[in-house]
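Reference record:
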Amino acid sequence: MPLNLPHNLPAIEILSKEHIFVMNDLRASTQDIRPLKIAVLNLMPLKITTETDLIRLLSNSPLQIEIDFVQLETHFPKNTPIEHLLEFYKPFSSIRNNFYDGFIVTGAPVELLPFEKVNYWQELTDIFNWARTHVTSTFYICWAAQAAMYHFYGINKYPLEKKLFGVFKHKINDPSFPLFRGFDDEFYAPHSRHTTVSIEEINEHPELTVLSQSDEAGVYIVSSRGGREFYVTGHSEYSPLTLHNEYMRDVKKGLKSVELPINYYRNNDPAQPPIVLWRSHANLLFINWLNYFVYQATPFDIKKIQELGEL
């Protein structure tokens, strides 16, 4: 998918080397179509890595997209150069009157904290509420999925005995649901988290539908509001080496509880390259979301998103 990006965003150079087509803002200005407007609230500490992972997946369909990277104003990240944030990120207050066809909220490394103890919780829930009237479809990832389900529906998160870490097999509960067009009957997706949610609690809410789950990893994808919100507890956007980098980081820290990521390394040997089992699923997941729940659902006049209502 041609993405309208600032011409010097680091992700462009990285993805060009992978032969993935992205379009800078100069070329995009010559195309006489209305691009989809997607906002990304990037809560991950390594923001450039996450930007690249998401753009890699959003670039795989024939529609043009404009992306706004959004940052919180009550929390300042420590692992991304200030110059990068100033050039490529917008504070939420500067976009809160805008409307977006799609909105992605990433995970964050705060899952062991109670939600209300996260220092930017008030601002984040304000953004969650804003999305319901200013966005056609929102895609919550990992901790953000747990946080949004807690905020909107009171779904609790629970600590796991050990970190859920690796690539796990999933099944689809409703194969006819458009999000799963082209999917195999079973598919793999990465997870990296210390907490989980209860399918029993989710099923108590008729507004929520569990679309996909795993025998090992639990609930994976939940939808609400007719596809205007998706809660994805895993990391389909991860690049091939992300789990490896997380594993090596924890090994260097000397953490005694570190275990090899499951179903990841060839021959279960971290000296060998990983086997990527989730790439096709990840591409289909994002393409189907963009096609069926953003592009086909959003009004041409983007300001009429508000007329879609909160229900």
